[in-house]
Amino acid sequence: MTPVSRAIDMWTKKDQSHSYMAIVFHLIDKAQFQSKTRLVAFELIDGVHLGKELTSCFWDSIEERALLHRILTMTGNNASNNHAMTTQLQHKYQDIGMTWPYHEHFHCCTFHVLCLLVKDFLNSMGQLTNEDYIFLITTPPEINT
Q1: Cα(76)–Cα(131) distance, rounded to whole angstroms?
Q2: Do 87 and 51 contact (CB within 8 A), yes or no?
Q3: What count of other Cβ atoms lies within 10 Å of the Cβ of residue 18?
Q4: Residue 86 maps to which CATH number?
Q5: Which DSSP state fits 16?
Q6: Residues with Cβ < 8 Å from 62, sequence gap 6 or more?
Q7: Strand partners, 29
Q8: What pLDDT is attached to residue 144?
Q9: What is the pLDDT of residues 10-51, one digit of tens each?
């Protein structure tokens, strides 16, 4: 079986009433040497986004789909709950006799880090609203000039 890299992202409604976790797998099709991306799950998260809730949601989702043995790397933002989740996932893998050292296989999303840096920089220059931030990251460069 081909190992996969996976990415997660979270969305929360503005009124904080619903949160969702998207689990996406990325792999290389060895036969055709093509990159493939698959949305594996889009899960409702109950409660706050603590590492244990994220761990439970992710683990249950991939276990249900018999994908535990296929995880190679993970990418997510650099939030502390993602680091807590990957630490807990390492322990869950150890409990079933598998090795998955999170410090080698979890990667922070570079784009997310850059967006946070730009947002902080722009905030330091004046008031920046969420609408301004969304416009900046979704507008093609030729329109921003």
Answers
A1: 23
A2: yes
A3: 11
A4: 3.30.420
A5: S
A6: 23, 40, 41, 68, 71
A7: 34
A8: 42
A9: 887 777 778 889 999 988 888 888 888 889 899 988 777 888
At residue 140 the predicted structure's pLDDT band, cuts being 50, 70 and 90, is: low
The boundaries of the domain holding residue 116 are 110-145
Residue 145 above 50 pLDDT? no
How many other C-beta atoms are found inside a 10 Å radius of the C-beta of residue 83?
A: 16
The answer to whether the CB of 25 falls within 8 A of the CB of 61 is no
- Same domain membership, residue 65 and residue 16: yes
> Token digits for 115?
């967006």
- Pairing label, strands 4-12, 34-45: unpaired
> Does one domain contain both 70 and 39?
yes
Predicted TM-score (pTM) of the model is: 0.71
pLDDT of 134 higher than 80: no
CB within 8 Å of 49: residues ≥ 6 apart: 10, 12, 19, 79, 81
